């Protein structure tokens, strides 16, 4: 049975078969789950539909979170970008969509964890901004999510996708690498370029800590999703231009795991240091505890 | 990671896979172990659950789990009110006591029939859970398999008898766990299987004089 456990295996399997990374990931899933190709694509399509719905929901003055720390910013950004802005359409949409999905998540709405709920805005933000502006049909967008999944599986296997284990690099870093890979799939880049984009995206988020205020998936998480979606686009565009990562993707993944293990526990989702323990962070936490 | 849908997924009500989806799944497993909708539940929240349960909506997710909602149900944010309307009383007690796992929950349930069971479990990330204790017995249940729970008198041959009944139906055991409080007294066994546990197995075990508790939890 075909399987992969590293990015280099994924890239060479795609090269040998003269196919895309998404095809490799999809056919491995078909074999593993003993379901038809069409059935598996349909399950992924359901996830794409939920992603789109959460974008729409978030843009419409959705709500504030229970703590009132986050909410309404995607709507604010949506109306801002219609008037004036300094960035191009794709980047603006990526910001807006990532904020939307992430706010819907913080407000107890329906989302697709990808790979986690805390990082759920990054992949839809990057992928759907590009697919809309480049007129990529949905059938291709669905396939690109398999590419993202394949990258996430490798990171999960050789490092971690949990903020409690590896800090935010494991969640938003991984999501960003997955998103960069999916965007390149939409752009019909080579498997090798996808590998480099993964390395570039993850490398730049190495060491990112998880220090959320009051222990909630809100500050800095929601806005970080917007940054990370753009970050994924930068990695994708660098790789598309033929720029390579000196350190290969699999080595970057192992480095991220090592860094995660070395990171103090206080900065891994425990809210015992960093932003969580700033004067304002502590004030918000005290307010939440006295509800 | 077994599937692409562990990475792109689950589809869930936010904000946290461990504190919202995981909390719901633990409550829903506890409800299945009780075997009925509870009348009353005292929920003890430990570790990070104690600190963050309100902001993560863990309380609403737990109520949703006891009502039998799944992690995608858009009624989750209103589940506490729905539970109250349905006469399910759920109390939440955050406790600042050291525990082995940072995300631990304990449910003390009383069913409509009067049955009382205490279930303790942990949320291990990504919406995955492990039930660690049923009453005072140690167990290890993920809810990812067909599950059989039995309570029997601790004497020779019982375990063989139970597994014999299961194997006679060509059902493969994936994981098995036996624990007891004291030698010669009651013991609890949990069995996770690859194949569907049929109702005839349940009724055969239920009629056995050696067993004082039999529960089947189907994989969802």
Automatic annotation (TrEMBL), chain A:
This is L-serine dehydratase. The keyword DNA repair does not apply. It comes from the Bacteria. Keywords: 4Fe-4S, Gluconeogenesis, Iron, Iron-sulfur, Lyase, Metal-binding. Its EC number is 4.3.1.17. It is an enzyme of class 4 (lyase). It comes from Thermodesulfobium acidiphilum. Belongs to the iron-sulfur dependent L-serine dehydratase family. Its cofactor is [4Fe-4S] cluster. GO terms for molecular function: 4 iron, 4 sulfur cluster binding; L-serine ammonia-lyase activity; metal ion binding. Residues 18-276 form the Serine dehydratase-like alpha subunit domain. The keyword Iron applies. InterPro entries: Fe-S_L-Ser (IPR051318), MmgE/PrpD_sf (IPR036148), Ser_deHydtase-like_asu (IPR005130), Ser_deHydtase_asu (IPR004642). GO terms for biological process: gluconeogenesis. Pathway: Carbohydrate biosynthesis; gluconeogenesis. The lineage of its organism: Bacteria, Pseudomonadati, Thermodesulfobiota, Thermodesulfobiia, Thermodesulfobiales. It holds the Pfam family SDH_alpha. It catalyses: L-serine = pyruvate + NH4(+).
Automatic annotation (TrEMBL), chain B:
SUPFAM superfamilies: ACT-like, Serine metabolism enzymes domain. Residues 147-220 form the ACT domain. Its cofactor is [4Fe-4S] cluster. GO terms for molecular function: 4 iron, 4 sulfur cluster binding; L-serine ammonia-lyase activity; metal ion binding. Keywords: 4Fe-4S, Gluconeogenesis, Iron, Iron-sulfur, Lyase, Metal-binding. InterPro entries: ACT-like_dom_sf (IPR045865), ACT_dom (IPR002912), ASB_dom_sf (IPR029009), Fe-S_L-Ser (IPR051318), Fe-S_L-Ser_bsu (IPR004643), Ser_deHydtase_bsu (IPR005131). It catalyses: L-serine = pyruvate + NH4(+). It comes from the Bacteria. Its EC number is 4.3.1.17. One of its GO terms (biological process) is gluconeogenesis. Belongs to the iron-sulfur dependent L-serine dehydratase family. PANTHER family: L-SERINE DEHYDRATASE, L-SERINE DEHYDRATASE, BETA CHAIN-RELATED. This is L-serine dehydratase. The lineage of its organism: Bacteria, Pseudomonadati, Thermodesulfobiota, Thermodesulfobiia, Thermodesulfobiales.
């Amino acid at each position: 049975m075909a399987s992969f456990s590293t990015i280099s295996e994924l890239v060479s399997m795609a090269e040998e078969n003269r196919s895309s990374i998404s095809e490799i990931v999809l056919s491995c899933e078909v074999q593993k789950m003993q379901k038809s190709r069409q059935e598996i694509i349909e399950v992924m399509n359901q996830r794409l539909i939920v992603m789109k719905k959460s974008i729409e929901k978030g843009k419409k003055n959705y709500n504030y979170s229970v703590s009132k720390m986050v909410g309404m910013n995607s709507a604010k950004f949506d109306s801002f970008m219609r008037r004036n802005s300094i960035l191009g359409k794709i980047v603006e949409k990526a910001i807006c969509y990532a904020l939307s999905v992430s706010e819907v998540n913080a407000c107890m709405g329906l989302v697709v964890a990808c790979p986690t709920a805390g990082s759920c805005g990054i992949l839809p933000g990057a992928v759907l901004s590009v697919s809309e502006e480049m007129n990529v049909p949905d059938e291709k967008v669905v396939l690109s999510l398999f590419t993202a999944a394949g990258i996430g599986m490798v990171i999960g296997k050789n490092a971690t996708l949990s903020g409690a284990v590896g800090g935010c690099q494991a969640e938003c870093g991984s999501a960003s690498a997955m998103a960069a890979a999916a965007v390149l799939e939409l752009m019909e880049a080579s498997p090798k370029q996808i590998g480099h984009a993964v390395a570039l995206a993850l490398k730049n988020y190495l060491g990112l800590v998880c220090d959320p205020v009051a222990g909630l998936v809100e500050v800095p998480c929601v806005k970080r999703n917007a940054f990370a979606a753009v970050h994924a686009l930068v990695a994708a565009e660098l790789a598309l231009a033929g720029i390579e990562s000196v350190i290969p993707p699999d080595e970057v993944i192992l480095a991220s795991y090592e860094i995660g293990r070395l990171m103090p526990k206080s900065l891994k989702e425990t809210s015992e240091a960093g932003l969580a323990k700033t004067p304002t962070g502590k004030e918000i936490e005290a307010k939440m505890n006295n509800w | 990671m077994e599937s692409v849908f562990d990475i792109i997924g689950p589809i869930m009500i936010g904000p946290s896979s461990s504190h919202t989806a995981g909390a719901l799944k633990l409550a829903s497993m506890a409800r299945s172990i009780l075997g009925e909708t509870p009348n009353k539940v005292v929920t003890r929240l430990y570790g990070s659950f104690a600190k963050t349960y309100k902001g993560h909506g863990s309380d609403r997710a737990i109520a949703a789990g006891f009502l039998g909602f799944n992690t995608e149900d858009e009624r989750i944010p209103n589940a506490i009110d729905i539970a109250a309307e349905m006469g399910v009383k759920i109390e939440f007690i955050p406790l600042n006591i050291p525990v082995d796992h940072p995300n631990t929950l304990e449910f003390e349930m009383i069913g409509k029939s009067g049955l009382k069971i205490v279930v303790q479990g942990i949320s291990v990330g990504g919406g995955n859970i492990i039930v660690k204790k049923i009453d005072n017995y140690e167990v290890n249940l993920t809810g990812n398999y067909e599950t059989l729970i039995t309570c029997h008198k601790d004497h020779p041959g019982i375990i063989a008898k139970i597994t014999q009944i299961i194997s006679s139906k060509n059902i493969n055991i994936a994981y098995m766990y036996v624990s007891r409080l004291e030698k010669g007294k009651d013991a609890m066994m949990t069995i996770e299987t690859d194949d569907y546990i049929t109702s005839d197995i349940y009724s055969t075990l239920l009629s056995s004089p050696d067993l004082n508790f039999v529960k089947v939890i189907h994989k969802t």
